[in-house]
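Field guide to reading this record: the first block holds the primary sequence, the second block holds the structure written as discrete tokens, and the final block holds curator observations. Each block starts with its own label. This record concerns 1-acyl-sn-glycerol-3-phosphate acyltransferase, catalogued under organism Methylobacter tundripaludum.

BLOCK 1 — SEQUENCE
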Amino acid sequence: MVQKIAAKLGYGWRLFATGLSFFSFGAGGLLLWILVFPVLSFLPGNPRQKVSRGQKIVSYSFYVFIGLMHRLGVMTYEVVGLDKLNRPGQLIIANHPTLVDIVFLISRIKQAGCIVKAGLWHNPFMRGPIVNAGYISNGDPEQMIAECVAWLRSGGSMVIFPEGTRSIPGKPYRFQRGTAAIALQANAVVTPVTLSCYPSTLTKAEQWYQIPDRRFHLTMHVGDDIALDEFVGISPKSVGTRRFTQYLQDYFTQQRAL
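BLOCK 2 — STRUCTURE
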């Protein structure tokens, strides 16, 4: 009886803490837009330096958010291979099981760009970080690829989810070819990151309030760089892009089975 009561109280607390965490995330994004980024815009520097400052601010704020979820008892986490990240011109390719994946990744990468859904440019809670960190819209696929390639070639790093959205539990991966096209055109340093979450939560099939019966554990495993030699220079380029997309899909499918 005591254990059942304790379990119900624990569940109730984690549900409240999850809601509080996401409220804090939205409020934090709004405050950054209203109070922090306007101040940063007045600091001297060229556009690239301003974007770098914006990315550092977003990374730190995401680090605080993940720390909040951890301290409130919502989640635990583990990072393996962090030393392989934070390199210039690095393209980090990751699977996408949960809603907090991009937040968790960027919280561990001090300066990184990413691709954002075009609709989020109009979200008052997200607009500040998106614009000031120089994130790239997916509204125009050709322009998106060109901007990502230019960013990587200039020495910037990026995080991309080749699925384009969160995975559907129990369904095979379906990677889009844009990620492979960006990697090959930029001839970037490609580093795979495998994310796993147990128990399953915050997936595409669940609402935020459908929490598991205990804290979820998020693991980030950074793999070794992927050599592009066998994919670069293939003619026509579409064949190389298709083969690299299939390679990535097979890689993450194998990682999920481990």
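BLOCK 3 — OBSERVATIONS
The first strand starts at residue 75 and ends at 80.
Helices lie at 2-41, 47-71, 101-107, 127-132, 141-153, 178-186, 237-257.
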